[in-house]
Amino acid sequence: MLARRIIPCLDVRDGKVVKGVQFRNHEIIGDIVPLAKKYAEAGADELVFYDITASSDGRVVDKSWVSRIAEVIDIPFCVAGGIKSENDAKEILMMGADKISINSPALRDPDLITRLADVFGQQCIVVGVDSFYNKDTDEYQVYQFTGDEKRTQQTGWNTFDWIEKVVSLGAGEIVLNCMNQDGVRQGYDIEQLKQARAKCSVPLIASGGAGTIEHFSDVYQQADVDGALAASVFHKGIIPIKDLKTYLKEQNIEVRPC
Amino acid sequence: MTKVMTSAKNVIVDTGCANLYSVKFAIERLGFEVTITDDVTIIQQAEKVIFPGVGSAKHAMKNIKAKNLVTVLQGLTQPVLGFCLGMQLMTESSTEGNSDDNASNIVPCLNLIPTNVEPLKAQGNRLPHMGWNTLTQVSNHPVFKGISEGDYFYFVHSFAAPVSEYTIASCEYGSTFSAAIAKDNFIGCQFHPERSSALGSKIIKNFLELDSTELNQELVNL
């Protein structure tokens, strides 16, 4: 049976892994390559690397770390941040990444999704969606440029409409970052993910809010997501992947043994 | 000084697809040397040939034709291992387009293993079939030495070869399909051994250490 995926997420800034709270106040966690290797050996099913400065700075970013990761790990990994064109995507994939994830550039130029899927195949095109729940209007809204708090801005898109749109354009997977939950470890946004699941015919990855082992079983069982992404609980050693998988297996959730 | 490569024991065929380096790194992690090439002579003289691929069959066949590699690949007699799209290209043809599309596009492939690639019959399961899945049956093919039913491998695809007499391992996702196929010296895996952790590495190692006479032994059909 297809296993539910556990996906540590490593935010990268200037070649270092960093972590912020609600996308802000980043602190350095460590070097990329040893951390990538550590997670692969610990039983992670996949890794995501977000170059969090790239999209919002508009500068050319050194991506040589991508091939250094590809050299050492034997599980799939995805690179996000600053991929704005077919050439950017080709460069990252040629360096050994299995997938690329686009976010702000897809909002600016939705057809980019289709062009990328045509050239590289739908399977390696992930669309990241940063979604904020506005309590006042009771609406889920898509945000862009979330890597830089000074430039973070609301778009005109409703989260679920945008998900439907990107799937129809050829996205092979959706990562839904629930911004209200990011870094605060209070649990995934089950309600939002359930609604997203209903609109999403391709694999859906939950992101934002993991704090305890039970949060993972909740999101798989209640929101039927294909994978769950988390950062701080893994970086800070709060949840060892082995313990997490043992627990999920006990809950009859299909996981790949470590 | 430029070193001109004239021969290599293990080669990865440069199909112009994107995952060449992840395959190369996986082989090098095992301590083997490997060369990425589209040079006809180097490919023909290699002891082992690896044939990777991601993306669409149409796009990849176009690249292979442009590089004049069709007859070269068809004429290989040493062991050849295809990964994912590389496996699919070993078949007679691939049907691109989705399952409810009557005007689907048939892409002729290399016709090395007599089976056809079709849209995966996922029966309502989400596509692409993406992630770690278990093998449901495993034959005694030498490349699968040490691999058992229930072992997890990393799959990413929406098309698959049905189960046939050439199936050497199977997987289930809505329906049962070929996780690996083989005929004579041609072997293909639908999953990605280069991204399937220790068990994937075992398959690559089995292949690189394979004595080609082992391929003549009789297989127990699934």
TrEMBL record, chain A:
Enzyme Commission numbers on file: 4.3.2.10
SUPFAM superfamilies in alphabetical order: Ribulose-phoshate binding barrel
Claim: Amino-acid biosynthesis is one of the keywords in the record: yes
Pathway named in the protein's UniProt entry: Amino-acid biosynthesis; L-histidine biosynthesis; L-histidine from 5-phospho-alpha-D-ribose 1-diphosphate: step 5/9
Catalyses which reaction(s): 5-[(5-phospho-1-deoxy-D-ribulos-1-ylimino)methylamino]-1-(5-phospho-beta-D-ribosyl)imidazole-4-carboxamide + L-glutamine = D-erythro-1-(imidazol-4-yl)glycerol 3-phosphate + 5-amino-1-(5-phospho-beta-D-ribosyl)imidazole-4-carboxamide + L-glutamate + H(+)
Keywords in alphabetical order: Amino-acid biosynthesis, Cytoplasm, Histidine biosynthesis, Lyase
GO biological processes: L-histidine biosynthetic process
GO terms for cellular component: cytoplasm
Family label: Belongs to the HisA/HisF family.
Subunit structure: Heterodimer of HisH and HisF.
Role: IGPS catalyzes the conversion of PRFAR and glutamine to IGP, AICAR and glutamate. The HisF subunit catalyzes the cyclization activity that produces IGP and AICAR from PRFAR using the ammonia provided by the HisH subunit.
Entry protein name: Imidazole glycerol phosphate synthase subunit HisF
